[in-house]
Amino acid sequence: MQDADTIRDIGARENPGAKAEHTGVGQRLGAFALAVGRYRWTICFILFLAATINYVDRQVIGVLKPDLTKLYGWSEKDYGNIVFWFQVAYAMGMLSMGAFMDKVGTKIGFAVAATIWGLAATGHVFATTVLGFKLARFGLGIGEAGMFPAAVKVIAHWFPKRERAFAMGLFNSGTNVGAIVTPLMLPMIVPAFGLGASFVVTGCLALLWVALWLAKYHPPEEHPKITEREKEWIKSDPAPNYPKIPWVRLLPWRQTWAFAIGKFLIDPIWWLYLFWVPSLLNQKYGLTLNKIGLPLVTIYLISDFGSIFGGWLSSSFIRRGWTINRSRKVAMIICACLVPPIVLAANAGSTWTAVLLIGLATAGHQGFSANLFTLTSDLFPTKAVGSVVGFGGMGGAIGGIFIAQLAGSVLQAMGPSGYYVLLLLPPAAYSLAIILIHLLSPRLEPISSEAFSSGS
Question: Major facilitator superfamily (MFS) profile domain location, by residue (predicted)?
Answer without folding.
Answer: 43-445
